[in-house]
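Cross-check.
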Amino acid sequence: MKCLLQRVHHAAVSIDEVTVSSIGPGLLVLLGIEQHDDAAAVARMSQRLLGYRVFADAEGRMNLSVRDVGGEVLVVSQFTLAADTQKGARPSFSSAAAPAMARTLYDDFVDALRADLGRVATGQFAADMQVSLVNDGPVTFLLES
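Predicted model, tokenized:
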């Protein structure tokens, strides 16, 4: 499982020029699910994400999590994060989870975040989405299980 997280002032997902989700200050999370991922990986990654300290404290140090600052989270499925780009000029998606498995784990991940944080928006699984954001920093991290 890979989570590309970006600290944002705001972010939104549109489909066919209609905004389907948006958040204010918080994290935009692009989630890639791989064949070896399971429920345990979902539980670990959701807790890691919610506790990951990427927001500044009063001294300007990254010591606060999205929980600490009362931020929101927008989760967007991104199977291309599971690509193998080690060689050649074309990515291989052989390590990406099959769509049915990925959708189940994506939904479980979102449910785990909502159970803890509450303020979680989503894209639409497997849709052609346009994602817009104003990156704060910019601050971007790749978390891998």
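The chain has a mean pLDDT of 96. The first helix runs from residue 39 to 51. Passed to J.P. for a second look.
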